[in-house]
Structure formats: structure tokens, C-alpha cells
């Protein structure tokens, strides 16, 4: 499965972003959407769009999503938790506006960066590919 992971749109995104993620099997937004109308173009692409609640959101999205794909247990949350939740292989978060790919205590922590208001590294999103046999590939994509 090939997943486009975005975060921290804060009411806007680069005009070419929907075309870049159009081939995704799913799109995950890690919060701080702000205005749900920002998601319309992504919803119209067709693949499932999963969204978690950010600290600047007032829409009733879930605070946490737990998903399992090909045996890989994913924990999606806007603000990174203080420690990895139990029974989790990947913690995927936003909030910091800085890309991350780090393994701590056997759990991989991932952040795609941000679509708006970058902190030193520019705008980015990420591709997450999870395949049979629990294979995981993460690639941050600068915009």
C-alpha cells in the first residue's frame, strides 16, 4: 500500500500538491487542517482520506487513529506522544513542522514535515509504502 502523508496545512497548500498525491492508495492528514474545505480537492481524488485532530482544529476528527497494514501497526496522532503507545510499530505525527525518521526502542517515529509554515527545512510531505512481509519505506518529498 502506498500512502501520501501530509500535515499542518493551516488552511492552504501548494496548488500542485493534489496532483502529486493523486496516485496514493490512501491519504493521511496528521492534523492542523483548520478549515475542512481545504480537504475537498484531496477527497475528490478518490482514495480514502484519513484525518486526525490537530491542536488548531475544531472539527470532530479523532485525536488518534490506529491502523494495521500488512501486519504493521500504525499510530497516527498530531502532537507526538511522550512515549510510544503499546503494540505499535510506527508513530506517525505532525505538529513540529520538521521531517522526522527516527527509531527509538524499536518503534519508528515519522513526521512528513509540513505543508505550511516550515521551520527551517521548507515545505514537504511524505510517501509511506507498506508491503507484504511488513516492509516499510518512507520518503520525505520537498515541495
Automatic annotation (TrEMBL):
The keyword DNA repair does not apply. GO terms for molecular function: hydrolase activity; metal ion binding. Keywords: Metal-binding. Residues 1-129 form the Calcineurin-like phosphoesterase domain. InterPro entries: Calcineurin-like_PHP_lpxH, Metallo-depent_PP-like, MetalloPDE_YfcE-like, Phosphodiesterase_MJ0936/Vps29. It is an enzyme of class 3 (hydrolase). Its EC number is 3.1.4.-. The keyword Transport does not apply. Its cofactor is a divalent metal cation. Belongs to the metallophosphoesterase superfamily. YfcE family. SUPFAM superfamilies: Metallo-dependent phosphatases (SSF56300). This is Phosphoesterase. Pfam families: Metallophos_2 (PF12850).
Amino acid at each position: 500500500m502506498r500512502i501520501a502523508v501530509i500535515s499542518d496545512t493551516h488552511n492552504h497548500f501548494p496548488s500542485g500538491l493534489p496532483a502529486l498525491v493523486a496516485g496514493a492508495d490512501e491519504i493521511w492528514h496528521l492534523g492542523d487542517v483548520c478549515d475542512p474545505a481545504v480537504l475537498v480537492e484531496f477527497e475528490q481524488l478518490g482514495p480514502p482520506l484519513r484525518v486526525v485532530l490537530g491542536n488548531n482544529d475544531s472539527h470532530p476528527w479523532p485525536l488518534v487513529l490506529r491502523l494495521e497494514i500488512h501486519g504493521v501497526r500504525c499510530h497516527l496522532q498530531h502532537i507526538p506522544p511522550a512515549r510510544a503507545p503499546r503494540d505499535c510499530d510506527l508513530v506517525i505525527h505532525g505538529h513540529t513542522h520538521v521531517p522526522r525518521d527516527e527509531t527509538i526502542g524499536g518503534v519508528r517515529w515519522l513526521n512528513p514535515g509540513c505543508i505550511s509554515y516550515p521551520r527551517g527545512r521548507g515545505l514537504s510531505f511524505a510517501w509511506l509504502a507498506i508491503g507484504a512481509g511488513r516492509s516499510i519505506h518512507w520518503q520525505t518529498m520537498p515541495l
